[in-house]
Design a protein that fits this description.
alpha/beta; globular; Arc Repressor Mutant, subunit A; 270 residues
């Protein structure tokens, strides 16, 4: 008998949504999707500049890797100069390792450099991680990473900028107060009206409309992530099984090693 999924009552949904914060990627995605004004305001604080105008922002932006790993970006924004801003909110430390930032930068490059364009036409890109903890460990409010030439210290201007915003560094500065608000579940405790107003809107219980919209986004996102992870795991098992067969292992030995059934391995071998 198939296991039935637990029924989520309105009360349970309300309790879950009340506890969501902007550091939760699904809630962040709902609040910032297509909101160019809110995204621009946030980037002004993070980058300490007010000379950029965001023209487009999409959350849960999917980029397919060419024959390799793909990714779903929490948010991808574009400004009036064509610069790209990938914004990731990350709670677990392992989800924000430096090589993930490197990968996302490369993935964006491969997706946005069109056929026939020259390398010099690659747009300037910012990969921004907003992390719940101090991932890099030096108790700085933010870490700005650019490439330099080791021998002379001169900048290597490849157009990629990586920024880690330390969500654990909360103080009275604009960035510190922004991080305070990202860690808040109650909109009334937030410093900034733009964030308080937007999160209040999606946490409103009026007629259950906002509740349903948020919950659907929240569940859909994690179902997609789970399906992608399962598909990747199956693909890796299949590849291992094929390599074992090529090395002379039997169908049964390959099945036992990978956890696949003998029938699945036999089909792969054929």
């Amino acid at each position: 008998m198939a296991r039935r999924e637990p029924v989520l009552t309105d009360e349970k949904m309300q309790a879950i949504i009340r506890e969501l914060r902007l550091i939760d990627d699904a809630f962040f995605a709902v609040c910032f999707d297509k909101d160019t004004a809110l995204t621009q305001w946030m980037l002004h604080i993070i980058l300490e500049r007010d000379d950029l105008t965001v023209t487009e922002v999409k959350t849960q932006y999917s980029i397919k890797g060419l024959g390799g790993h793909s990714a779903v970006l929490d948010a991808l924004a574009t400004d009036q100069e064509g610069r790209l801003y990938n914004i990731e909110v990350q709670k677990p430390d392992e989800g924000a390792i430096p090589r993930r930032a490197r990968f996302y930068g490369g993935l964006i490059d491969s997706a946005f450099l069109k056929k026939g364009q020259q390398y010099k036409e690659l747009c300037e890109t910012y990969v921004i991680f907003i992390t719940e903890n101090d991932i890099l460990g030096d108790n700085l409010p933010a870490y700005h990473i650019d490439r330099f030439i080791c021998e002379n210290g001169k900048p290597f201007d490849d157009g990629l900028h990586i920024i880690y915003v330390n969500g654990a560094h909360i103080d009275r500065t604009p960035l510190g107060q922004l991080m305070h608000d990202f860690m808040c579940s109650d909109p009334h405790d937030m410093h900034y009206a733009p964030l308080s107003d937007k999160t209040s809107y999606f946490k409103s219980e009026k007629e259950g409309q906002h509740m349903s919209q948020l919950w659907n986004e929240y569940v859909s996102y994690y179902k997609e992530q789970l399906a992608e992870a399962k598909a990747q795991a199956v693909k890796e098992k299949n590849q291992i099984a094929l390599r074992l067969i090529q090395k002379g292992f039997t169908i049964e030995e390959s099945a036992e090693t990978t956890g696949l059934s003998p029938e699945e391995v036999r089909k792969l071998a054929q």
